[in-house]
Amino acid sequence: MSKNGVVLVCVTPQHSCRHLIECGQRFAQQQNAALHILSVLPQRQSFAPDWSVLESLNEYAGEFGAEMTVTFSDCPSDSVLKTVSETGVCTLLTGFPGKNSTHFVFDLHGKIPQIPLWMVDSDGTAYTIGHAAQSELQIITDGTFRIPLPTHPQ
To answer: Which domains, and CATH codes, for the chain?
Structure first.
């Protein structure tokens, strides 16, 4: 079976990021694409990252046949852009920006507006900054879009 590009999922070293990997797998299946997981940590964490959480996420990604990469950079969007250019990313997934957001998601969207960018909430619902066919969209009151995805097979 040939693959149509790569679904790239950006995670942070938190066990709760498993839902991002699951959602990425659903996208990869729907698009007949490969799945790749990326975690970009600040340079200061290169001396003592939380390897136990990263290894747990890597093992979980492996259950879906995905490869996981961990990089260290103080400009995470540049690291993601490098991965995008090297791997043929067709879809990009992230979590929702937190309270102390670095505006990573919006920075990425500004740099690669041609690649569909999805944010996934804690219940696995994916929201996009555009790019979906109008017939698939449900418009949410705040102007984001929602495409219900099939549930992950058990």
So the answer is: 6-146 (3.40.50.10320)
